[in-house]
Every structure is written in structure tokens, then in C-alpha cells.
């Protein structure tokens, strides 16, 4: 069991280096930073104070104070900034510089300043979160295994789907009739059918989320199914043979850590664009296993992912995705981003994404999670990458 919170050593080092008297973080509602620092989720205002190597939490009386091995927890109904100032004064720091994340709420900052403290921002917690320890990596890998099973469920359904016309009066499974096709009305191909009813993006999404729930993870509102050129992945459309179908998930595990996985499937392909796009995305995916060693530049990795995708004849400006990923952990987007000049270090965990979009053909995407290890990078999970759902 840890003797202090995650990030505690980094906070103490920053406090010592800056000759500060302590560190304060204030969260409002569910917040990734407070979950990282405390190991649990709080749905309330919370004052986190680190002073003299010890951690103190102040929570309102509207919640039951938890028993935490990493912190002293007490009820305090004063505004979090005032509660934090009282903790600092109580533990021998009546004045001086206090470090805080740059996202500290304005009113909390004002309360600390009015109590006589000078605030200085620090990225110590952000930097600490960028390097995952073994338990964090295990949690992300568990979420990634669940993600693989969720996308695998989609693959199994698509492999079993047919392009046969519906019989009269056959609605099936609570889906009534043909859904809005998103505007591509000149395509008269029949919708894919599964289990006696038309198969839509929403129906497939629900099946994926049911599998994620059975795996013990939260879909976290991140599951999306996108069909060809129709719609933007939000409104339901019926799935058709021959179009690329992107299934993307970002489940959150019981401890808050997330996975990320996207695969593209085509049922009964009848064209070549999606195959070329898939080869490009798969080649970019493999680049991450070459350019993500400790000491490599995160921005260079991002540029190489884009360049490798574009090398297959796709426009860097119009077709290749700009979002090629970045850090992942308690939040879906963390440090390091895959741009700028940050150096990769062992313990970074990255969402790596390659995608191509064309207005006439649709979208192809492959997303995985990669760990930067001492011995080099490795992708988490063994999810197949092919377009054919029957080969999952």
C-alpha cells in the first residue's frame, strides 16, 4: 500500500524546489486530477492540501468522509479555498508561496490570496500523471482488453449480418422501419440485417456497450459507430454492405483508467479506396512501434504518423486526421500530446490513432493504446486490424 498519494513525491519535489510552503488543488465534481491524487472519485467540491509531506482533504458535510490511507480527511463546509488556507495555517504555514495547478478555480485562488498566500502555478501533477506506474498500466491494459471484446462483439454481429431485403412487417428488436440514411438517398442497396431486423449504427452501438458493461467497464459515452459518408457518427443510420464502418470505444475501468480502440470493418466490399486507406492506416500504426522509444520526440512521432498515412496518396491537409493521439490515463486526453517538443519517457501511455476521411468514400480508422517501456514500445492487446469482420 502506498504511503502517500500518487504524485505526492512530485509535489514535494516541486514545493522544495520552489521554496513553497505547500500545494493546493481544488476540484469541483468529478475531476481526473482529484481522482489521480486520492485514488477515488468525489462528486463534490474538494480541497486537496499537501503540506510538510502530508496530505489533507477537506470535503463538505453532504458526503460521507471516506477513510483513505493516503490522506487525512475531514469535513469542512467553508469554501474550498478557505478550507485549504485553514489547513496550511494549522500545519505551520501561515504565509508564503503556495503551488497550485493552473486550473485552480478563481474563487479558491482569491480566498488563498486573501489569507496571505502567494500563488504560483505548477505542472507537477500533470507531469506525474504522464508517467504511469505498474498498477496504472495494468488498469489501462484491463480496460483495453474489455475494449477488444466490445469491438469484437461488433465484428461478430457484422460477420453474421446479411444484405437481404426485409419481409413485409418485419421491424424486429424494437427498431421501427428504415431509419434516416443521413442524406445518401440515391444508394438503394438494402440495409444489413441481423437477428431479424435492419442493423443500424445505434443498434450496433448498444450491443457493443452491453458487452462493455458485461466486462465490468463503463462505456463513458465514448462508443461511436460511423457508417460510410452518412452522418457524423451521432445520428442513427442503417448500415449497408460495401461501406467502411468504424467502431470506436473508450471504456473506463473501475479505478477510472481508460482504454481506446477503433477498428474499421467492411461487409461484402466492392471498392478499393477503403483497402488503400486501411493499408495506409496500418502502416502508420506500425510506425509507432519504431518511433516511440524513451528519449524520442512526441511531436516527431505525431508527424511521422501523419506522414506515413499521407505517403499512400492521401492529402495531409484534407484527408489525413490531425488528431493522431496523445497521452491516455484517467482522462481520455493527457500529457504528452503528439505535437510540440516533449520527450517520451518510459511509463508514458499513448493513444495512437491513424485515420483517413474522404467525402465520397467515408472513413477508415485504426486506434490503439501503446506503452513506452524501458525496452521499447508495445501495443496493449492483440485486437486484429483487418477489414473483414469474419476474421476477427
Automatic annotation (TrEMBL):
Domain spans labelled Peptidase M24: 232-373
Region listing for Disordered, in residue ranges: 161-200
Membrane spanning residue stretches: none
Pfam families named in the record: Peptidase_M24
InterPro entries: Creatinase/aminopeptidase-like (IPR036005), Pept_M24 (IPR000994), Peptidase_M24B (IPR050659)
Protein name per the record: Peptidase M24 domain-containing protein
Amino acid at each position: 500500500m502506498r504511503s502517500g498519494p500518487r504524485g505526492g513525491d512530485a509535489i514535494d519535489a516541486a514545493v522544495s524546489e520552489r521554496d513553497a510552503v505547500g500545494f493546493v488543488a481544488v476540484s469541483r465534481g468529478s475531476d481526473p486530477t482529484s481522482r489521480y491524487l486520492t485514488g477515488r472519485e468525489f462528486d463534490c467540491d474538494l480541497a486537496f492540501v499537501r503540506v510538510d509531506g502530508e496530505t489533507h482533504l477537506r470535503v463538505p458535510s453532504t458526503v460521507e468522509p471516506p477513510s483513505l490511507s493516503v490522506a487525512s480527511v475531514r469535513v469542512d463546509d467553508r469554501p474550498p479555498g478557505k478550507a485549504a488556507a485553514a489547513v496550511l495555517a494549522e500545519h505551520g504555514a501561515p504565509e508564503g508561496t503556495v503551488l497550485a495547478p493552473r486550473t485552480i478555480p478563481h474563487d479558491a485562488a482569491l480566498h488563498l490570496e486573501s489569507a496571505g498566500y502567494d500563488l504560483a502555478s505548477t505542472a507537477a501533477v500533470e507531469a506525474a500523471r504522464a508517467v504511469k506506474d505498474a498498477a496504472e498500466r495494468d488498469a489501462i491494459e484491463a480496460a483495453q482488453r474489455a475494449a477488444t471484446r466490445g469491438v469484437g462483439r461488433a465484428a461478430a454481429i457484422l460477420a453474421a449480418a446479411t444484405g437481404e431485403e426485409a419481409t413485409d412487417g418485419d421491424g424486429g428488436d424494437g427498431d421501427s422501419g428504415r431509419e434516416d440514411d443521413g442524406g445518401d438517398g440515391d444508394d438503394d442497396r438494402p440495409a444489413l440485417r441481423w437477428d431479424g431486423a435492419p442493423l443500424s449504427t445505434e443498434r450496433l452501438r448498444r450491443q457493443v456497450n452491453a458487452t462493455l458493461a458485461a466486462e465490468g467497464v463503463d462505456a463513458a459515452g465514448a462508443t461511436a459507430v460511423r457508417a460510410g459518408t452518412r452522418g457524423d457518427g451521432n445520428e442513427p443510420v442503417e448500415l449497408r454492405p460495401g461501406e467502411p464502418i468504424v467502431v470506436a470505444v473508450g471504456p473506463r475501468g473501475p479505478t477510472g483508467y481508460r482504454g481506446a480502440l477503433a477498428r474499421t470493418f467492411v461487409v461484402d466490399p466492392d471498392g478499393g479506396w477503403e483497402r488503400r486507406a486501411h493499408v495506409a492506416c496500418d502502416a502508420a500504426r506500425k510506425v509507432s512501434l519504431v518511433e516511440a522509444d524513451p528519449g524520442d520526440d512526441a511531436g516527431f512521432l505525431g508527424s511521422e504518423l501523419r506522414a506515413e498515412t499521407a505517403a499512400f496518396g492521401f492529402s495531409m491537409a484534407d484527408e489525413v486526421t490531425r488528431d493522431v493521439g496523445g497521452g491516455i490515463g484517467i482522462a481520455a486526453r493527457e500529457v504528452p500530446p503528439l505535437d510540440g517538443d516533449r520527450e517520451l519517457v518510459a511509463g508514458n501511455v499513448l493513444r495512437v490513432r491513424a485515420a483517413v476521411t474522404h467525402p465520397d468514400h467515408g472513413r477508415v480508422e485504426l486506434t490503439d493504446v501503446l506503452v513506452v517501456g524501458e525496452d521499447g514500445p508495445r501495443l496493449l492487446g492483440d485486437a486484429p486490424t483487418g477489414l473483414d469482420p469474419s476474421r476477427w
